[in-house]
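thread: overnight batch results

M.L. [08:02]
morning all. the overnight job finished for the chain we discussed friday. pasting input first so we're all looking at the same thing
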Amino acid sequence: MGHEHAEGQELLLRALHDAHAAELGRFVNRLTGDHAYAEDVTQETLFRAWQRPGVLERPEAAVRAWLFTVARNLVVDDWRSARNRHEVGTDAPPEQHQADATDRVLDSWLVSEALSGLSSEHRQVLVHGYYRSLSVREIAQALGVPEGTVKSRMHYALRAMKLALQERGVTQ
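M.L. [08:03]
and the structure it wrote out:
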């Protein structure tokens, strides 16, 4: 029984790797710009999932969200500990806590990653509407489409964006 169990566990880990490693690796590589580090984080994330079989019994979208959240947290924790190793102690700490920019940077990367997965039509209306702060009328003129089309695309773009972010572990 022990040998069969070990074989089953190895098959589970291989299936987990085949299903998620490439996408997780690309995600972490975009966050960090370090391919070797991305592979390490990907392997650690998959190993943690393998250690928690209950996670793998969830629906596919929930498994993906869990994996992206774990990978993101591993990167954040590593960055914070690296920053702490390089900090110099002082007898007079600042009176006010300074906001940690790490979460803000990672969130912007997550948004960029999610945007890149949208269709060009959806990406265009979001970029024009949210990043350039154009009105529906201005977007319609810029893209040469009716205002109703802009409203429709915006609705579906926001829905797709929300789904893409949830799959990456951003919940709302």
